[in-house]
UniProtKB/TrEMBL annotation:
CDD domains in alphabetical order: ALDH_SSADH1_GabD1 (cd07100)
One MF annotation (Gene Ontology) recorded for this entry: succinate-semialdehyde dehydrogenase (NAD+) activity
Top-level taxon in the UniProt lineage: Bacteria
Name of the protein in question: Succinate-semialdehyde dehydrogenase
Keywords on record: NADP, Oxidoreductase
Recorded family membership: Belongs to the aldehyde dehydrogenase family.
């Protein structure tokens, strides 16, 4: 895949970039090693000042950044602004709380281990390689970069080939805040150049957000070289609605949960599992609201759904829909590629799904919703847990006992009650099963790329 900015709304190639050669990769890796050594010796308070300064720099460039995101991957401009703002808030959160998350922990009874003092301390691993996707070009990276730098690590970013301008911006951002030269760098390289970097002894750990096949490949190479990894590999998240809830609020939230970022989000709700007594009314409301969404130019302030980021992604999504329709699924809304420029796909609702349809077990990465009718909570959980993914989930229930039951039975890294799945700097983010392992953000996220060292003193 060429390294290029292609406007998804028109299909026009706006700018192309040359991949770095071996000499440039080596130079950047060497610089990263030196930066990691410097950061390790830098007090965390100083790192926090640099992080705040980097956040200030992003703030001054916020509108230009938002327009760049929209041009590169097609998200509506209002959502692009929200992504930039989320990054700024995350940077400030990490700067303000890293010292708490990484504080030494004394053993309450050191005498039990024959010591006068004993404690644990967190120390950075070194250079961390990040392999990142295009759907949230700044946020996906920031939720790794901010905590990793605050912990004292250096970062190397291999971004998706269709968002090179976002990659280069991030590669320059932290230096603007005062971080040492090479503390965070972008690598414009092909996917084939990733494995040699993982194998390089100077790379201490790897994090990837991407497809399941890509994650397996990265994890296999890292395991062969005994490297720490964090994997976030997508999901097919359930949105469960039980009887007794506000169906207007539930259906409105469901629409937003499905089409946020043009439906291209790992934690977007994709499977809507509805209790029998409220199924007809919910689906009627949900389908009407999906049909009413405004599709168009993502630079238009009123646009709610823009184009998909790539032509291949749009084609793959349509194949899932056509497979389901051809096997008897009911298409309640949308369901066909429009015949106009750009990689648009209409908000689509499918019902009457059967296990032989690919969309039942595969991730639909775009504004396509699958609805399921179930009888009671046990069947709801069975359907929710039947995929190989387990990233996040949402449950709408008016009963506290029932809410607790769902929390205990859903196979997912998170459960959102009477809301929609979201990511934030304050909460750990990650999944189970084929959605991956490890966590980003929160106290757990900053510790993923640290060595937990036990200290014993006579």
């Amino acid at each position: 895949m060429p390294i290029a900015t292609i406007n998804p709304a028109t299909g026009e190639t706006l700018k192309t970039f040359q991949a770095y050669d071996d000499a440039e990769i080596e130079r950047r890796l060497t610089t990263a090693v030196d930066a990691a050594a410097a950061l390790r010796q830098t007090p965390i308070g100083q790192r926090a000042k640099w992080m705040h300064a980097a956040a200030d720099a992003m703030q001054t460039e916020a509108e230009d950044l938002a327009r760049m995101l929209t041009l590169e991957m097609g998200k509506p401009i209002t959502q692009a602004r929200a992504e930039v703002d989320k990054c700024i808030r995350s940077m400030r959160f990490e700067a303000d709380h890293a010292h708490e998350f990484l504080a030494d922990q004394p053993l309450s009874d050191p005498g039990a281990v024959g010591a006068s003092k004993a404690w644990t301390t967190w120390q950075p691993l070194g250079v961390v390689l990040a392999v990142m996707p295009w759907n949230f070009p700044l946020w996906q990276v920031m939720r790794f970069a901010a905590p990793a730098l605050m912990a004292g690590n250096a970062g190397l970013l291999k971004h998706a080939s269709n968002v090179p301008q976002a990659a280069l911006y991030l590669g320059s951002l932290f230096a603007k805040g005062g971080f040492p030269d090479g503390a965070f760098q972008a690598l414009l390289i092909s996917s084939s150049a990733v494995a040699p970097l993982i194998a390089d002894e100077r790379v201490a750990a790897i994090t990837i957000t991407g497809s399941e096949p890509a994650g397996r490949e990265v994890a296999t190479t890292a395991g062969r070289n005994i490297k720490k990894t964090v994997l976030e590999l997508g999901g097919s998240d359930p949105f469960i609605v039980m009887a007794g809830v506000d169906l207007d609020a539930a259906s409105s939230t469901a629409v937003h949960a499905r089409v946020q970022n043009n439906g291209q989000s790992c934690i977007a709700a994709k499977r809507f599992i509805i209790d029998e007594p409220v199924y007809e009314e919910f689906v009627e409301r949900f389908t009407a609201k999906m049909k009413a969404l405004r599709i168009g130019d993502p630079m238009d302030e009123s646009t709610e759904v823009g184009p998909l980021a790539t032509e291949s992604g749009r084609d793959e999504l349509d194949q899932l829909v056509q497979d389901a329709a051809g096997k008897g699924a009911e298409v309640l809304a949308g369901g066909a590629k429009p015949d106009n420029p750009g990689w648009f796909y209409p908000p689509t609702v499918l019902a009457g799904l059967t296990d032989d349809m690919r969309i039942v077990t595969e991730e639909a990465f775009g504004p396509v919703a699958s609805v399921y009718r179930v009888s009671g909570r046990e069947e709801a959980v069975r359907v929710a847990n039947q995929t190989s993914f387990g990233l996040s989930s949402a449950v709408w229930s008016a009963d506290a006992e029932e809410q607790a039951w769902f929390v205990g039975t859903l196979d997912a890294g998170a459960v959102f009650i009477n809301g929609m799945s979201e990511s934030s700097a304050q909460l750990p983010f990650g999944g189970v099963k084929n959605s991956g392992y490890g966590r980003e953000m929160g106290s757990a996220g900053i510790r993923e790329f640290c060595n937990l060292k036990a200290v014993w003193k006579a």
